[in-house]
Amino acid sequence: MREASLTQDTLYEAVREIKSRHSIVGRDEELAEALMCVSAGRHILIEGPVGVGKTVLASSIAEYLGRPIFRVDGDERYTEQKLTGWFDPPAVMQRGYTHESFISGPLSNAMTQGGILFINELNRLNEGVQNVLLPAMDEGKIEIPRIGTIYAKEGFLIISTQNPREFIATSSISEALSDRFELLPLSYQSEAEEREIVERRTGTRDRKVVETIVAIIRETRVHPSVRRGASIRAATSMAAIMNYLGTDVEDYRKAAYLALPTRIELREDSKKNVYEIIDEIIDKAVFSSASLKPEAKPQDAVEDTKGTGEEKKTIRK
Ligand SMILES: Nc1ncnc2c1ncn2[C@@H]1O[C@H](COP(=O)(O)OP(=O)(O)OP(=O)(O)O)[C@@H](O)[C@H]1O
Ligand SMILES: [Mg+2]
Predict the structure, then answer these.
(1) AAA+ ATPase domain: from which residue to which, for each copy (predicted)?
(2) Among 71, 110, 139, 313, which one is most buried in terms of CB atoms within 10 A?
(3) Are 113 and 153 in contact (CB under 8 A)?
(4) In angstroms, how far is the first alpha carbon of the chain from the final one?
(5) 171: CA distance to ligand 1 center in Å?
(6) Burial class of residue 290 (count of CB atoms within 10 Å of its CB; 0-12, 13-18, 19+)
């Protein structure tokens, strides 16, 4: 297995390999920590706000390990039988409750094949389903009615992701489950890294457009009326839309009106609607960023444009 040969010296080589294979920007420390944990045979839980790169990190590590990966997308309707396995009714009619009638679920498959169980959105699973994971994680076995005990082969690991507890539609995992994971918290990346992600993910080469878009989405995270700001997904979306637009304020506004309302959440006490808040964000981000500030021009050139309405054209209000 890949990680068995990892040493302190080769850890960062592995990080570089993962980053280049998946075109990941930054996150060197987080990847190194995750690799340390999985090399030590620990299960990891990657926690962070929406769109911060949890899935990309978890899946790139799972893939690097070179073991079979079984994926579960957590939601409240996911059942214990789906996770462990179930009996196929026609097969049961023919053969009864035998091993041949049993269809293994992702947990049983990951255990018997020494693979990775990759659980996206762990805290969306209901408590009964979460409890099934407990013996698998520390004793390496689960009991399945009519089948018996399933044992985990060496290499079995769980890599999970979840949004932080305070997010709506998520609940917290039990203390017992939490006690079986190493926690890897992810927060938003730096402005420079976010710009690079947008460039890589959209192929947009216009530096000013990228800078302005990233300034806009970062502004959503600090606006006092916004409870949940936009992630890098909003920035890549805006950049993709801007490919079909020009580069003046109205173009940014159009892209923001399309990309932001679904991705930001206003505080309950906000007196303004989402479009009014976006207008405020645009005004602040666009006019304060270097990109749309009038270029420093010789004095006479500035005089020339006065009164022509040229500059007004770009400002809606
Ligand atoms: N460090 C990064 N380098 C390159 N791309 C990134 C990075 N972080 C995030 N992305 C990109 O941003 C998008 C969102 O990332 P991802 O889906 O991993 O977020 P998430 O935290 O799992 O979101 P959610 O909470 O909605 O599940 C993806 O397109 C991903 O490729
Ligand atoms: Mg995700």
Answers:
(1) 40-187
(2) 110
(3) yes
(4) 61
(5) 22
(6) exposed
Cβ neighbours of residue 32 closer than 8 Å, sequence gap 6 or more: 11, 12, 15
Candidates 29, 55, 123: which one to mutate for ligand 1, based on the most atoms within 8 Å of Cβ?
A: 55
- The residue written with tokens 């992630």 in the block is 231
Element containing residue 72 per DSSP (H, E): strand 69-73
In tens, the pLDDT along 18-64 reads 999 999 999 999 999 999 999 999 999 999 999 999 999 999 998 99
Region(s) of the chain under CATH 3.40.50.300: 2-185
What pLDDT digit, counting tens, does each position of 131-166 carry? 999 999 999 999 999 889 999 999 999 999 998 866
- For 158-186, what is each residue's pLDDT tens digit? 999 998 866 555 567 889 999 999 999 99
Tokens encoding 69 = 């990966």
The fold for domain 2-185 equals Rossmann fold (3.40.50)
Tokens 């300034």 -> residue: 215
Hey, what amino acid is at 208? Answer: K
Q: 7 has which bridge partners?
A: none
Give the architecture (CATH level 2) of 191-291: Orthogonal Bundle (1.10)
**304 or 212: which leads in pLDDT:** 212
> CATH 1.10.8 region(s) of the chain?
191-291
State the CB neighbour count (10 A cutoff) for residue 22: 15
Which pLDDT score, from 0 to 100, does residue 51 have? 93
Task: Say if CB 293 and CB 248 are below 8 A apart.
Answer: no
**What is d(CA 252, CA 245) in angstroms, rounded to the nearest whole number?**
8
Residue owning the nearest CA to atom 9 of ligand 1? 53
Mean pLDDT rounded to a whole number for the chain: 87
State the distance from the centre of ligand 2 to the C-alpha of 119, rounded, in angstroms. 10
- If you search the block for the tokens 């917290």, which residue do you land on? 172
